[in-house]
Structures are given as structure tokens and as C-alpha cells.
């Protein structure tokens, strides 16, 4: 777990929230341009930073992982309702993890419908967290 303190904490929260928002906008832009793989990748990056921002804000720390499944498990320790949110969307979280992994290591193509589900998931996540702020 990583724990920035004091001023570093507020700066990290702000930085994570800003980057999550930028990644969200990039996911939308790439989707509109028809680049589904980059749209999926940026959606995953945004979700990851949103969850890390939430954890940092509520616990003062976040796990050094890129695994959305683990980030959701950690969030559920703070607020049990995250478990239901996660469980209801686990297949999309699987797709997002696939987007993260394959963007670096394997050739992979996403169907448009899968990326639409990822973007809808991201909008739900942002809505639960109050937009770009968590």
C-alpha cells in the first residue's frame, strides 16, 4: 500500500482525479474516432484512478496494483455496497482488465458493444463517485 501524507495527500488526490478525467475524455474521443482498443484502454485507466482516488481519500492509502478486481475488493472494505456494484458488473471489469493487459502484451480487438459497456460502466462509476471527484 502507498500512503502519501499531508499536503502530498491532497496533491495526489487532485492529480489522480484530474488524470481520471483526462483518461475518461480520451476514452470517449477514441471511441468516437473508432479506435476501440484505445478507448477500452483509457476507460480502464480512468476506472483504476477513480478507485485509487476513492481509496486514498477514505483510507489514506491505496494498493500498488493495476488490478481492478483487487481495487474493488479494497473499496468494499470501506463501504460494503461496493461489493454489489462490483458483482453486478464483474464481466465488464473482466473486459477492462483484458484491455489493460492486452494493450501492453497481446494483439486483441474489442467489439463495439463491449466498449460501449465499458464506457457505460465508467459513467456509472463516475456517477457513484460524484463525477470526476471521488
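Q: What amino acid sequence fits the structure above?
A:
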Amino acid at each position: 500500500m502507498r500512503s502519501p501524507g499531508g499536503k502530498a495527500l491532497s496533491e495526489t488526490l487532485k492529480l489522480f482525479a484530474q488524470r481520471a478525467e483526462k483518461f475518461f475524455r480520451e476514452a470517449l474521443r477514441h471511441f468516437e474516432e473508432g479506435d476501440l482498443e484505445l478507448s477500452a484502454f483509457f476507460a480502464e485507466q480512468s476506472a483504476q484512478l477513480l478507485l485509487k482516488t476513492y481509496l486514498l481519500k477514505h483510507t489514506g492509502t491505496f494498493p500498488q496494483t493495476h488490478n481492478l478486481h483487487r481495487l474493488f475488493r479494497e473499496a468494499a472494505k470501506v463501504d460494503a455496497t461496493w461489493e454489489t456494484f462490483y458483482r453486478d458488473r464483474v464481466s465488464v471489469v473482466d473486459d477492462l482488465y483484458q484491455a489493460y493487459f492486452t494493450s501492453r502484451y497481446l494483439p486483441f480487438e474489442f467489439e463495439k458493444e463491449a466498449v460501449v459497456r465499458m464506457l457505460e460502466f465508467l459513467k456509472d462509476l463516475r456517477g457513484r463517485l460524484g463525477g470526476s471527484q471521488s
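Q: And what stands out in the fold?
A: The chain has a mean pLDDT of 90.
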